[in-house]
Specification:
mainly alpha, about 300 residues, elongated, 2 strands, two-stranded antiparallel sheet
Length: about 300
Amino acid sequence: MNFLGFLAPLLGIIMEWIYKLIPSYGWTLIIFTLLTKILMFPLSVKQQKSTARMSAYQPMMQEIQKKWANDKNRQQEELMKFQQETGMSMTAGCLPMAVNFLVLFGLIEVVYRPLQYILRVPKELIDKAVELANSALGMNLMANNFTVQNDIINAVKSSPDVFSSVFSADQIASISDFNFMFLGIDLSRVPHFAFDAASLMLMIIPILSVVTMILSQIITMKMSGQEMQGAMKWMPWIMSLMFVYFGFTVPVGFSLYYTASNVVMLVQSIILKKMYDPEEMKKQVQAEIEAKRAEKKKKKQVKVTTD
């Protein structure tokens, strides 16, 4: 297991529970997405509040940088003063991003290994099944390949008797009944560029994941009130290109999860903007700064009286 995917056992338990209620891999991924976003909503609220405040601080910091552009030491001193005066934290919004990142990699592990995490088949039996598939069925599977467990599930479905020496009757039954199909698309397969009907169907969800990701990033940035500077302006497009590659090298199930996640994020961004509007936050932050400066000035004043 990839060390970044250490949440996979926990996420696998949640997905196993959902799959038992609704025996559809596709709907399990969608419901899992909704559930995790609901659970993580308080963190998203915290991130939106932090981002909205940063959007208010941004023009003030830019003004300091412009004023002391020729004196980097003074510039750093003034920025430090500004941070102390406002209580601004550059890392306040990092926790929600880190949690999202870890959930994403944990989910990738579960999508790679549904036999292990959803159907609860021990890894040693899976390794034996890989050896048997290679020797008895002439397959060329590698135990650590990210599609191997999907391939074993499909092999058991087509030739259950071959695996009777490895899996119990109950395990063979649960593997054979595992439902990868979602709206006519086999979520266990890896998409590839081709112009036959089956390949075009597989390409739909990865393309949707990239399109919804671009929309989600653009709208989320607008809702946050922040402006991307320099090379950061290109980050949404670089990320999109990365996911074009990623979406066409992993099973389609991951792209379905990512599409659902992007759609939920779009809706969430609209709700969060209503809670913490960046324009309103700018007014509030400005008022807070002026109040602090007035209080500081008041403390410095010395009152002289005559006896």
